[in-house]
Amino acid sequence: MTAAVFFGCTFIAFGPAVSLFLFTIAREPLRVIFLIAGAFFWLVSLLLASLVWFISVQISNKESASQQKGLLIFGVVLSVLLQETFRFAYYKLLKKANEGLLALSQEETMPISIRQLAYVSGLGFGFMSGAFSVVNILADSVGPGTVGIHGDSQHYFLSSAFMTMAIILLHMFWGIIFFDGCEKQRWLAVAAVVATHLLVSSLTFQNPQYVSSLVPTYIVMFFMGIWAFYTAGGSLRNLKLCLTCKDKDFLLANHRPR
Amino acid sequence: MDLLSNKWIVYLALCLFIAGISCNSVENKIYVKLNYTVPCVRLLNSTHQIGCQSSLSGDVGVLHVLESEENLDFVLRSGHNPPYMVIMESSLFTRPVMMKLKNGSSRVAGVAVVEPSANPPGGFSPHTRCPNENTGVYSENYGPGLAHCNTTKWNPFGNGLSYEEFDFPIFSMKDDNDTQLIRQCYMDHNRPVNGSDPQYPLCAMQLSSHMSAVTNTPTCMRRNSISFSMNMVCDPLSDYNIWAPSKPLNVSQNGHKANESVIIVSARLDSRSFFSEIGPGAESAASGLVTLLAAAHALRNATQDAQLDRTILYTFFHGETFDYIGSSKMVYDMEKNQFPIDLDNVHSVLEIGQVGLHSSSNLWLHTDPVSMRNSSVQEEVKNLITNLKSAAAGLNVSVKEPGVTQPLPPSSFQRFLRARPFPGVVIEDYNSSFSNKYFQSMFDNADSLNVLYPPNLTPEEQLNHVTDTAKSLAEVATMVARVLFLQAGGEKTQINSINADELMVSRMLYSFLISSNNSWTQEIISLKDIVHLNNNTVNFYISVEQQASLPTILVKYLLANLTGTAINVTQENCKKESEDNKETKHLYTYFWVQGAAPPNSTERDGFCVRSTVQWSRAISPAFALENYTTSEYSTWTESRWKEIKGRIFLVASHDLEMLTLGVGIGVLLSSLLLTYIMSSKADILFSSGREPTSATY
């Protein structure tokens, strides 16, 4: 649709993720490493899922539309389950790595907490997932045309960008909740993460009725956000403290040596 | 790491595999590619550029189907969503409409012309009214009152569109599924409802035909020489002239041949239209060359049996449309002793022009009044005309001379006259202006030449059906063959045995005008050239390829088969004869042609054809002399281009795009702000006292 739409959709999709990266991760090399490793784990899960889907499509009947639709649903469910499996695998890996890092480092304490790892790995998953969702679409949005000549909705680009933003943030929240659930053996939290992931992915089957897929997704994201906030150690009291003593602590926080 | 590296290899292999198979489905949602895209390209000569140009990535415009000339006002003034891409039927493709579009070109993104199923009845010729007026023989020094079509306009239907310069792309489209899609898209999205403007999203089209060369030939040749062959911007128009002497000439010896008096009988091999890959040239090219081929065939036995005083040189000139490229090259070669004969050997010239549309069987013999002031030339010409009249006796044609003093029509003979005053006659089917209403246009096809077949015939049956046009052309060919026999010194009593073959003429017309890939052409052509045959009408445009184009190849094999003889040698020996045999290799050329397959077998019975057919490069002498500003020779070049394509899609309004950008920037800025605030307050927000104080944030 032209450069304006390209940049607009890129900013919408990756704006929050990039700002999170810039302000919280970019300065710490260890966080960057774990972010990229998390992205790689997501990539491997996608590879496996797509391998299975590809093989099943090749051996299926290509003409039957209902069979293809069924295979697509199967592919989506499989992909979600594999992503969550790899998230768990990453958690296990990080636990082992943390012990190793502790043994290697000269300090007494762990250089990076498991909570931060949860956040970073969730964001890594989100980045990669977002990239695969939307980069293809962004590349085509640069051209002069917009979607619609065959009757599709012309809000394709915009809704893809918003969906991607939601997915990236959701992955981050899921990461925090998931790791915390594994840490405290709260398997209900883990199951909830898997269930909401399945829910959000299934909602995309509503497309092209974009409203009915985007609005529930954002509602889920909102609630997941609140849950992750509480899991990460926030509380209403902290929030009030933050909002009221903005002036004093803002200045102090920037001057305290860390 | 082994497991990891294995993973990478599998991943990479799979990635490439998948990328190779899948197509981009998002792109398919947006664009519909056009399959049949024939553009008008840019041609340059020593002073001007003509043709069409698009911007580098293609011009995008909102579709508008032009209903009438008054509807142009919408495109040029009142429409609210410029620039527009105008789709028009070919009935609106006229000079007034195109000039208005050219003048309002800031609001015009391009034009697409839909080919009609039948020729426009009123005639249409995008060529100029006075073709080749600056490179013929008439000028201020030679017949000044006759120059520049002062006495008669040869092409009265000419509107000169081919020689205008447009800065938007102009494409030609067939009336097929793609065009239906375009019309449907226009109806759905672009049609104004009740006088109000159509709402976005609107249907738009993008046409890409970016031409690299600019300004004129000297400029583009200079730019060519900068970067060698890496980034050439233009190429000279060139192809091959085909010629064959009626008795063998030693072609390795150039220059004057003692005791050779040659009669040159010529026809032109090329045509053009406004669009680059279309050039059916039925009346302007095919009628003349088919007649000459048939005449050569009719004379085959007569010239071999009788000992004739003069040699007949059957010549086909390429590039005559573009200021006489082929004939000027041949005359130049003869002057510079680079041709097996020279101008002193030439006795006279007989040219076959456009002869397909002679109404009431009248043929007109045009002569040059200026050279006829010389008494010896006048005598020779009168002799030639007398022979023509006696050759036409008993046939269904009658020859006449135009009674007034008028110049020669545009013909290759004019280039010979520029060298020296030769006696010569140009045979045409018109008196003072073309009877061809579609000269050098895409409508000069089988229909305009009345090459009509009864319905429900298979291609094979059509090939063997003798049309009326073929019969009349065969009469002309018979006359030409007989007069050549007489001119060459043959006995008058023998001319009645010289006859052209009607079936041969009809088959040739079929091969040039309907389908060049048929069973007959497959028999007479070599295996290596079969790939050039296709199932469409032949494109006579000269183009810029280094190898010969399809009409040149066809004429070469036809001339070889029709004037040559089949000799009884094997395929290897056939090749050897053309390479090794010292006596014959300078006199003859040898082709191994496929031949017919006998019934009950698929193996073709090939045979070796020995003939005197030769070919010489038809490129303007201006390029050999490297004088690109000359007005003496043709300086036409064709621009190069990277890609030609077209596609249709919907466009959204500018406001929506800006809104998207605004929302994006808003989201980015607000998330930056929020994140900054949250990260600076992180220790307060997330401090539930669980972590030791030295946890880093």
Structure commentary:
The complex is a heterodimer of chains A (258) and B (697). Chain A is mainly α. Helices cover 81% and strands 0% of the residues of chain A. The longest helix of chain A is centred in the N-terminal third of the chain and has 40 residues, at 65-104. Chain A starts with a helix and ends with a helix. Chain B contains 20 helices and 24 strands. Chain B has an 8-stranded mixed β-sheet with strand order 1-24-10-5-6-7-9-2. In chain B, strands 17-16-18-15-13-14-12-22 form an 8-stranded mixed β-sheet. In chain B, α7 packs antiparallel against α14 (502-513), α10 crosses α13 (468-487) and α13 packs across α14 (502-513). The longest helix of chain B is centred in the C-terminal third of the chain and has 27 residues, at 654-680. The radius of gyration of chain B is 32 Å and the shape is elongated. The model of chain B is unreliable at 11-22 and 689-697 (pLDDT under 50). Chains A and B meet through α1, α2, α4, α5 and α8 of A and α1, α2, β10, β24 and α19 of B.
Q: What would you say about this model in short?
A:
With 258 residues, chain A is an all-alpha fold.
